[in-house]
């Protein structure tokens, strides 16, 4: 046997062994009687506030419940620094060395893509409290992957549907020039068939929008649709207000929310967004969540916090259902799929692809009675909405 | 279309005066002291952080702006004394290396002191809102104020450079440094003044822009490249050149970004035009710079041999 074939044979053998291990599907972690959960979130850099909200939301539920599912619980928090390479290493570390039973994360979709395989192939359950890339909702759906958030396109589709419903004829579209920005405008146009007054892709991280605002002022469109997450959104909202454009409806996704409102304050009042929840959604579970969160952390929770809060509730409900026995993976997955907990967003169930089937709302930025800024539900746009990729998913 | 042109010209002017405030210091430091200062953008960032801090402390934008000036002077003097002074006799490569290191240290220090999340500076009540221009067009009062104060500072700088003794020394230093020191001028003191003046101008630019943009750690680098283009176009060491260069670069940048795709649309189909326009617009100022250097290798007003 030559050296090369030898190598090939060894590799094949090890792949076989690895597959066998995966097929057996009970990670070593399941054997001990501690429930170990690893959080991978973006906790530094410009988007740190998103990860902090998710961490706070998860911890709020975990602290309140104490032992999730009645099992002694240990939580490890890791900052992915918004770097996919680091996140993938972290995920492997969590699964192989820390022997976690669940990984909860991440915030960003490119990181979800990086950690998906290392986590799920070991039989560990991955729960995304935010990122919902289309691949994992469609053809590459996986029984070990659950999302407590949404599929990425959905919030944009909400705004498209609203623009359609309002009978807008020419909407000015604006997003940063990267994959999520292009997906955003595509999502919007999925449910909006009217004309566009202009379509602008700005540089990622652009902070001065004077040129784009000049075009909006000159074209006087029926409405603006913008996807400008994080600091870009803060600047756009402030400059929109300063430019005196407030008479033109401002539709957005991931731009006006509880992470940007503390910075934009009054400038954002009246601006519209699409979301699966808002802090003032009227139900008992939500009231409890929002008041406890504000009391604990001093700011209003956003969807990031709510979705992570639900991730913790989901784990709690499933582990309790299986009586703390994490070795029967099929039973655990079935228990997770039941989603038997009270979500602050009201109706919540999992579709075939383990993505939520939930309602979507038009939300508006308001100033609460206590002086804090938050989004507020204006009207329901979609009822029990299933994402468009679910039909491509055949589990197993 | 006319509306868009008017708005974009105003936007160009506003960006231009800001670029000028930063470029003025850079061109003087480069022209007179022969130091390539990559850390100049840091001063712009620090100015923004200063006003964010002082405005939050005093509760007033105006006090914040006022306190930023002495703080900027202090930073300029300290930086010159501790770092820049040691670079005068070193090669440009050493200077680039040292000041680039300074950029990283400064960014990290800012993160440690002020945290990673962007800060907001409230707009002064007096200057918030917008004024009607023509028809439905409105323009933010604050941006008009930036244009006015930038032009005023440019005018002041013109007077200082052309009609005072220190200005005379600056001009002499930019033209022939060796001769100035041979005439018995304390060149060390002159350098400290030049560097501090540049630092103050950059800090003021950062402070002025803070209420429009959020104050963030990366903000220095984003303007630094544009500023270098301005300095090269204007001619190294020339304040007049920096002013014209800044306005030129800013107007080309703002007009090109918007009208480029529109013009292209008349020759290409819309989607291709949009694509090409997006790619061409950021290149325009570099094309401008290359074209100008072909005709005038020293820049518009560069006089040094």
UniProtKB/TrEMBL annotation, chain A:
<dbReference type="GO" id="GO:0006865">
    <property type="term" value="P:amino acid transport"/>
</dbReference>
<dbReference type="InterPro" id="IPR051010">
    <property type="entry name" value="BCAA_transport"/>
</dbReference>
<keyword id="KW-0813">Transport</keyword>
<feature type="domain" description="Leucine-binding protein">
    <location>
        <begin position="35"/>
        <end position="366"/>
    </location>
</feature>
<keyword id="KW-0732">Signal</keyword>
<dbReference type="InterPro" id="IPR028082">
    <property type="entry name" value="Peripla_BP_I"/>
</dbReference>
<feature type="signal peptide">
    <location>
        <begin position="1"/>
        <end position="23"/>
    </location>
</feature>
<comment type="similarity">
    <text>Belongs to the leucine-binding protein family.</text>
</comment>
<dbReference type="Pfam" id="PF13458">
    <property type="entry name" value="Peripla_BP_6"/>
</dbReference>
<protein>
    <recommendedName>
        <fullName>Leucine-binding protein domain-containing protein</fullName>
    </recommendedName>
</protein>
<keyword id="KW-0029">Amino-acid transport</keyword>
<dbReference type="InterPro" id="IPR028081">
    <property type="entry name" value="Leu-bd"/>
</dbReference>
Automatic annotation (TrEMBL), chain B:
<keyword id="KW-0472">Membrane</keyword>
<comment type="similarity">
    <text>Belongs to the binding-protein-dependent transport system permease family. LivHM subfamily.</text>
</comment>
<feature type="transmembrane region" description="Helical">
    <location>
        <begin position="38"/>
        <end position="56"/>
    </location>
</feature>
<feature type="transmembrane region" description="Helical">
    <location>
        <begin position="276"/>
        <end position="295"/>
    </location>
</feature>
<protein>
    <submittedName>
        <fullName>High-affinity branched-chain amino acid transport system permease protein LivH</fullName>
    </submittedName>
</protein>
<feature type="transmembrane region" description="Helical">
    <location>
        <begin position="12"/>
        <end position="31"/>
    </location>
</feature>
<dbReference type="InterPro" id="IPR001851">
    <property type="entry name" value="ABC_transp_permease"/>
</dbReference>
<keyword id="KW-0812">Transmembrane</keyword>
<keyword id="KW-1003">Cell membrane</keyword>
<keyword id="KW-0029">Amino-acid transport</keyword>
<dbReference type="GO" id="GO:0005886">
    <property type="term" value="C:plasma membrane"/>
</dbReference>
<feature type="transmembrane region" description="Helical">
    <location>
        <begin position="243"/>
        <end position="264"/>
    </location>
</feature>
<dbReference type="GO" id="GO:0022857">
    <property type="term" value="F:transmembrane transporter activity"/>
</dbReference>
<keyword id="KW-0813">Transport</keyword>
<feature type="transmembrane region" description="Helical">
    <location>
        <begin position="96"/>
        <end position="121"/>
    </location>
</feature>
<feature type="transmembrane region" description="Helical">
    <location>
        <begin position="141"/>
        <end position="161"/>
    </location>
</feature>
<dbReference type="GO" id="GO:0006865">
    <property type="term" value="P:amino acid transport"/>
</dbReference>
<feature type="transmembrane region" description="Helical">
    <location>
        <begin position="219"/>
        <end position="236"/>
    </location>
</feature>
<dbReference type="Pfam" id="PF02653">
    <property type="entry name" value="BPD_transp_2"/>
</dbReference>
<dbReference type="InterPro" id="IPR052157">
    <property type="entry name" value="BCAA_transport_permease"/>
</dbReference>
<feature type="transmembrane region" description="Helical">
    <location>
        <begin position="190"/>
        <end position="213"/>
    </location>
</feature>
<keyword id="KW-1133">Transmembrane helix</keyword>
């Amino acid at each position: 046997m030559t050296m090369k074939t030898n190598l090939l044979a060894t590799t094949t053998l090890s792949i076989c062994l690895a597959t066998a291990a995966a097929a057996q599907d009970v990670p070593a972690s399941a054997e001990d009687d501690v429930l170990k959960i690893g959080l991978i979130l973006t906790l530094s850099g410009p988007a740190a506030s998103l990860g902090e909200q998710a961490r706070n939301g998860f911890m709020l539920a975990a602290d309140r419940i104490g032992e999730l599912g009645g099992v002694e619980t240990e939580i490890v928090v890791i900052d992915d620094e918004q770097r996919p390479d680091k996140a993938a290493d972290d995920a492997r570390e969590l699964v192989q060395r820390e022997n976690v039973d669940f990984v909860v994360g991440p915030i960003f979709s490119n990181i979800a893509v990086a950690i998906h395989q290392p986590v799920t192939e070991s039989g560990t359950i991955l729960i995304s409290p935010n990122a919902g890339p289309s691949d994992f909702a469609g053809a590459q759906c996986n029984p070990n992957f659950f999302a407590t958030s949404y599929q990425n396109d959905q919030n944009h589709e909400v705004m498209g549907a609203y623009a359609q419903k309002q009978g807008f004829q020419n909407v000015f579209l604006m997003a940063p020039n990267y994959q999520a920005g292009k997906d955003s405008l595509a999502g919007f146009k999925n449910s909006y068939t009217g004309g566009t007054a202009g379509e602008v892709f700005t540089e990622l991280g652009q902070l001065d929008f004077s040129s784009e605002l000049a075009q909006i002022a000159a074209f006087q469109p029926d409405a603006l649709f913008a996807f400008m997450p994080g600091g870009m959104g803060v600047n756009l909202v402030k400059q929109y207000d300063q430019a005196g454009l407030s008479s033109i409806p401002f539709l957005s996704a991931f731009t006006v929310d509880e992470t940007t409102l503390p910075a934009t304050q009054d400038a954002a009042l009246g601006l519209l967004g699409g979301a699966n929840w808002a802090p003032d959604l009227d139900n008992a579970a939500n009231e409890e969540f929002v008041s406890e969160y504000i009391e604990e952390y001093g700011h209003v929770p956003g969807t990031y916090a709510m979705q992570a809060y639900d991730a913790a509730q989901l784990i709690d409900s499933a582990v309790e259902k299986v009586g703390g026995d994490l070795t029967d993976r099929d039973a655990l997955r079935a228990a997770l799929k039941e989603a038997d907990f009270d979500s602050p967003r009201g109706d919540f169930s999992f579709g075939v692809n383990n993505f939520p089937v939930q309602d979507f709302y038009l939300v508006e930025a308001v100033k609460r009675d206590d002086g804090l800024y938050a989004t507020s539900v204006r009207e329901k746009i979609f009822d029990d909405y299933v994402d468009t990729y679910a039909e491509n998913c055949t589990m197993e | 279309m006319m509306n868009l042109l008017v708005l974009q010209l105003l936007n160009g002017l506003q960006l231009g005066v800001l670029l000028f405030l930063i470029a003025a210091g850079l061109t003087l430091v480069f022209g007179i002291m022969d130091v390539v200062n990559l850390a100049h953008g840091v001063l712009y960032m620090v100015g923004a952080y200063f006003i964010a801090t002082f405005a939050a402390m005093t509760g007033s934008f105006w006090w914040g702006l006022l306190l930023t000036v002495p703080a900027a002077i202090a930073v300029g003097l300290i930086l010159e004394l501790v770092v820049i002074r040691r670079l005068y006799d070193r090669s440009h490569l050493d200077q680039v290396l040292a000041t680039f290191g300074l950029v990283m240290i400064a960014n990290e220090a800012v993160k440690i002191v002020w945290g990673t999340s962007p800060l907001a500076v409230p707009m002064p009540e007096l200057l918030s809102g917008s004024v009607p221009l023509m028809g439905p067009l409105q323009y933010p009062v604050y941006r008009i104020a930036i244009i006015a104060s930038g032009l005023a500072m440019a005018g002041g700088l013109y007077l200082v450079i052309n009609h005072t003794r220190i200005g005379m020394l600056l001009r002499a230093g930019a033209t022939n440094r060796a001769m100035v020191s041979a005439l018995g001028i304390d060149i060390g003191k002159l350098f400290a003044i030049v560097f501090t003046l540049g630092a103050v101008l950059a800090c003021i630019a950062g402070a002025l822009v803070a209420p429009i943009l959020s104050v963030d750690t990366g903000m220095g680098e984003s303007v630094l490249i544009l500023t270098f283009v301005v300095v090269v176009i204007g001619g190294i060491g020339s304040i007049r050149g920096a002013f014209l260069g800044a306005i030129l670069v800013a107007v080309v940048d703002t007009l090109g970004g918007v009208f480029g795709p529109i013009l292209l649309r008349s020759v290409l189909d819309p989607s291709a035009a949009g694509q090409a326009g997006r790619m061409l617009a950021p290149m325009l100022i570099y094309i401008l710079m290359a074209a100008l250097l072909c005709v005038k290798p020293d820049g518009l007003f560069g006089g040094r041999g």
